[in-house]
């Protein structure tokens, strides 16, 4: 109600021009089309104004939106009595957004001047405008409106107030000789703090929010069968086999301890992401693997777990921690189960399961509370198997009873962990080599990712396929080796003459991070098809030949 009251004052205080469309009102502002003329002349040019008013903290865009957003899109199809209109762009403000993003646009009020040539022998003018525009603060909300304005032709009559307002903003249009770069360099700067908006965007209803929570939980559940989590599942499988002779109460406690470890680690990740986001960094799912120190630490941890599985030594737990999490009166420590939950989360983050990337991309554009909620939903999904064991502890007794054969199982599972350690060691080597070599390490036949080059190729009439990958991303490597390099896909690329562009996110790269955020993604894999005059086609995280071929042929 408070916001509606504000908008009501907004409207009452507005100029009342003789010839304008009604205000198109939404939660973040209003827009209308105004005419300089009440009656247009029989020939020549008339001026219109596309008038926007945004609420405090929200803005609309200049012709070059910057790192995020897009400029207003005007479609005059259906108009009568006019030639092609020309839209002019007043000098913008430079907005510094959270996450190192830069945008150019207008906050408060702006009028985009529009020059409209009158058709020869026109007897009247009918203006039909389909407007697609984006209004943003930290989140962004798109709007589409239709406006119709009928203008008679006769003895020209100018509306002084409308003419004055349009002229006021026409005077702010930079000279034609100025380049976009010069205009951007001269733009006044406004920093948008993350705290300026903490609400869910208007387009995000509670229904869609609940849907995102469901996607996060499904993505977390699917992570259980991704290769990143396989080593931890192996350890848990061994633990379950050892639990087959336990009392139900101990099975429930052990399963809940593992689930608690997963949820606590996801909460820690969420708080870490919120802290980085508030500090203005670009963040995403799995970005901790861009730090060689983290990869090196995990390499050592995996080696230690592997040696422990082979029985070379036992991993001692701090005595105080062991007492804290031990099952009362049983002597059975819960610490290993809790730690395996933490370990599962650490190894899960280089994988992006279906649905998870969408949920995380949504979360990172929201308030801290929603970020934490989405992360916990994903953690709940990853922990579902352990919750099911706690609910149905009797299912454990269907497993084979412990015996000498488990020594061979421990040996096999140890090899799995050492395979993971070898992969982590390889990632570490790739990260510590020369950054220039890492940034240009793309497959043969692919260009190095350059966002500005995408627009250049599209302007030349070429289609572009973009793949963002990283050495630490299991799913990315599967997509590359099994799908994108398959004979059928390579033949389809060649047949359509696509420009293939690949970005390497193995090391931190804010440019790629901002590119992903603009497309609503929080992590990788990322694959998209760009075609001239069309919106990009975003592919899912997990690819198959069928999915890629359908997208290429759509």
Walkthrough of the structure:
38% of the residues are buried. The protein is built from 18 helices and 19 strands. α4 crosses α10. The N terminus is likely disordered. With 554 residues, the protein is α+β, with helices and mostly antiparallel strands. A five-stranded antiparallel beta sheet has the order 1-2-4-10-7. It folds into three domains: 195 residues, Thiol:disulfide interchange protein DsbD, N-terminal domain (Immunoglobulin-like, Sandwich), CATH 2.60.40; 227 residues, no CATH class; 115 residues, Glutaredoxin. β1 and β2 form a beta hairpin. It is elongated, with a radius of gyration of 29 Å. The longest helix is centred in the middle third of the chain and has 31 residues.
Strands, helices and their partners?
Blueprint: H1 2-12, E1 24-26, E2 29-35, E3 37-39, E4 45-54, E5 59-66, E6 73-75, E7 86-87, E8 93-97, E9 101-107, E10 109-117, E11 124-136, E12 140-152, E13 157-158, H2 160-170, H3 180-186, E14 189-191, H4 206-223, H5 230-242, H6 248-278, H7 292-309, H8 319-325, H9 335-348, H10 356-363, H11 368-391, H12 406-432, H13 435-439, E15 447-448, H14 451-459, E16 464-469, H15 474-484, H16 487-496, E17 499-504, H17 510-518, E18 526-530, E19 537-538, H18 545-553
Parallel strand pairs: 8-14, 15-17, 16-17
Antiparallel strand pairs: 1-2, 2-4, 3-13, 4-10, 5-9, 6-11, 7-10, 8-9, 11-12, 16-18, 18-19
């Amino acid at each position: 109600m408070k916001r509606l009251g504000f908008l009501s004052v907004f409207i009452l205080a507005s100029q009342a021009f003789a010839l304008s469309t009604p205000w198109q009102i939404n939660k973040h502002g209003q827009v209308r089309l105004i005419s300089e003329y009440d009656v247009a002349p029989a020939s020549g040019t008339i001026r219109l104004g596309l008038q926007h008013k945004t609420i405090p903290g929200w803005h609309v865009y200049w012709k070059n939106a910057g790192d995020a957003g897009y400029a207003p899109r005007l479609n005059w199809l259906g108009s009568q009595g006019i030639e092609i209109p020309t839209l002019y762009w007043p000098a913008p403000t430079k907005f510094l957004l959270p996450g190192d993003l830069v945008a150019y646009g207008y906050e408060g009020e702006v009028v985009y001047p529009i020059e409209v040539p009158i058709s020869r022998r026109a007897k009247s003018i009918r203006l039909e405008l389909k407007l697609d525009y984006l209004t943003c603060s930290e989140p962004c909300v798109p709007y589409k409106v239709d406006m119709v304005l009928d203008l008679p032709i006769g003895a020209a009559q100018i509306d002084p107030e409308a003419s004055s307002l349009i002229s006021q903003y026409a005077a702010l249009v930079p000279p034609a000789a100025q380049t976009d770069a010069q205009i951007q360099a001269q733009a006044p700067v406004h920093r948008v703090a993350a705290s300026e908006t903490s609400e869910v965007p208007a387009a995000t209803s509670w229904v869609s929010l609940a849907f995102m929570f469901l996607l996060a939980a499904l993505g977390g559940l699917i992570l259980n069968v991704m290769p990143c989590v396989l080593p931890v599942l192996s350890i848990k499988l061994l633990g379950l086999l050892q639990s087959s002779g336990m009392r139900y109460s101990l099975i429930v406690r052990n399963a809940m301890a593992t689930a608690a470890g997963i949820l606590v680690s996801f909460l820690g990740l969420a708080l870490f992401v919120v802290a980085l986001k508030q500090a203005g960094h670009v963040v995403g799912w799995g970005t901790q693997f861009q730090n060689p120190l983290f990869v090196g630490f995990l390499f050592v941890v995996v080696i230690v777990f592997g040696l422990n599985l082979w029985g070379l030594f036992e991993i001692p737990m701090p005595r105080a921690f062991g007492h804290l999490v031990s099952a009362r009166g049983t002597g059975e420590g819960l610490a290993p189960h809790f730690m395996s939950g933490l370990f599962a989360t650490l190894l899960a983050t280089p994988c992006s399961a279906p649905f998870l990337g969408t949920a995380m991309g949504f979360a990172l554009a929201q308030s801290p509370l929603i970020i934490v909620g989405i992360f916990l939903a994903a953690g709940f999904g990853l922990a579902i198997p352990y919750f099911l064991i706690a609910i149905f502890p009797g299912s454990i007794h269907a497993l084979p009873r412990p015996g000498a054969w488990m020594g061979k199982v421990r040996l096999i599972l140890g090899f799995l962990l050492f395979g993971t350690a070898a992969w982590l060691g390889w990632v570490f080597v790739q990260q510590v080599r020369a950054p220039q070599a890492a940034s240009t390490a793309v497959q043969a036949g692919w260009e190095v990712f350059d966002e500005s080059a995408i627009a250049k190729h599209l302007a030349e009439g070429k289609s572009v396929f973009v793949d963002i990958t990283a050495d630490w991303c299991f799913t990315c490597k599967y997509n590359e080796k099994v799908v994108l390099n398959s004979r059928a896909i390579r033949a389809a690329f060649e047949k359509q003459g696509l420009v293939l562009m690949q970005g390497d996110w193995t090391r931190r790269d804010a440019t790629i991070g901002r590119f992903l955020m603009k497309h609503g993604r929080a992590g990788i894999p990322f694959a998209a098809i760009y075609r001239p005059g069309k919106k990009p086609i975003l592919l899912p995280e997990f690819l198959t030949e069928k999915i890629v071929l359908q997208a290429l042929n759509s």
